[in-house]
């Protein structure tokens, strides 16, 4: 079942904040460089890639020397504004080493759910990928206040994957995959290799994030899975810190948790 990923050529890769930042929010250059190199290599192999990257608020937090994640809306907006440009600057720098052009795409909830805007957005993303440019998407946190926010990039990346009919969403996280309960709270938690039906999610204890930079934990990853299942789109959650994680996952190695939805639902 897992082998199906080998033949999938249209991938959305979602990068969680912890996969590219230090706990203090500043960009972790080794982590980002390693992920960019792997993504560039997959891109060179001919697959279509869209990146959804978190990290603007932590990066802004780091650059503004804030000791903790901002709580008020204006502070979050300010941190996102500072951090987003830092994030893109670093992606530009690393991808340009492999002669790959990237494009910043900032989305709001209306772009996902309002028909005309959704269509415009789909056209823009298709044009970029057809021209071999890698779109790097984030929520537009500077203008999206709580009531009009998607709120987390697990959900956003699933919506993007559906919108452009890509085949698989790969979520790069700080954990090896899904466990039957949060392994950071339960030492005896057992990892799950494959989920074949969305109903299986109901019996798993999905908790919130435990890190200073993450949003939503496993709760929002399960939301993403529930969005993808009816469209028969697969999903994979893997630990971004495992050596050569993307290459190995795309070779069909049994890493992380594979949500095999293409034949189910
Ligand atoms: N059942 C579960 N299996 C695995 N991780 C879980 C589970 N429930 C909660 N979590 C938490 O979800 C976290 C990953 O989500 P998050 O903190 O948002 O990080 P990221 O932004 O890197 O995806 C894990 O570090 C873990 O603490
Ligand atoms: N849009 C926010 C990211 C929100 C989010 O979902 O974060 P994460 O749980 O680290 O993927 C930012 O750029 O900081």
UniProtKB/TrEMBL annotation:
User: What is this protein's name?
Assistant: Glutamate 5-kinase
List UniProt keywords, sorted A-Z.
Amino-acid biosynthesis, ATP-binding, Cytoplasm, Kinase, Nucleotide-binding, Proline biosynthesis, Transferase
Which gene codes for it?
Answer: proB
The record's listing under SUPFAM superfamilies reads: Carbamate kinase-like (SSF53633)
E.C. number? 2.7.2.11
Q: Name one GO molecular function term.
A: glutamate 5-kinase activity
Pathway(s) served: Amino-acid biosynthesis; L-proline biosynthesis; L-glutamate 5-semialdehyde from L-glutamate: step 1/2
Q: Where in the cell is it found?
A: Cytoplasm
Start and end residues of each Aspartate/glutamate/uridylate kinase domain = 10-239
Which species expresses this protein natively? Fusibacter ferrireducens
């Amino acid at each position: 079942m897992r082998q199906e990923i080998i033949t999938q050529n249209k991938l959305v890769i979602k990068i969680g904040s912890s996969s590219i930042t230090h706990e203090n929010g500043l960009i972790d250059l080794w982590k980002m460089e390693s992920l960019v190199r792997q993504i560039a290599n997959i891109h060179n192999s001919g697959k279509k890639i869209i990146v959804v990257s978190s990290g603007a608020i932590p990066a802004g937090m780091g650059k503004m020397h804030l000791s903790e994640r901002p709580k008020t809306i204006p502070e979050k907006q300010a941190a996102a504004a500072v951090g987003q440009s830092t994030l893109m600057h670093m992606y530009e720098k690393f991808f340009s080493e492999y002669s790959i052009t990237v494009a910043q795409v900032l989305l709001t909830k209306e772009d996902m759910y309002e028909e005309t805007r959704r269509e415009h957005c789909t056209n823009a993303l298709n044009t970029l990928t057809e021209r071999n440019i890698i779109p790097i998407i984030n929520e537009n946190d500077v203008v999206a206040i709580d009531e009009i926010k998607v709120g987390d990039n697990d959900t956003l990346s699933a919506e993007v994957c559906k919108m452009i009919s890509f085949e698989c969403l790969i979520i790069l996280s700080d954990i090896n995959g899904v466990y039957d309960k949060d392994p950071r709270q339960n030492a005896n938690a057992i990892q799950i290799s494959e989920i074949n039906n969305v109903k299986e999610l109901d019996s798993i204890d999905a908790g919130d994030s435990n890190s200073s930079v993450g949003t939503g934990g496993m709760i929002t990853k399960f939301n993403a899975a529930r969005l993808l299942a009816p469209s028969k789109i697969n999903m994979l959650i893997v630990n971004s810190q495992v050596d050569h994680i993307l290459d190995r996952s795309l070779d069909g190695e049994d890493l992380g948790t594979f949500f095999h939805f293409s034949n189910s639902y």
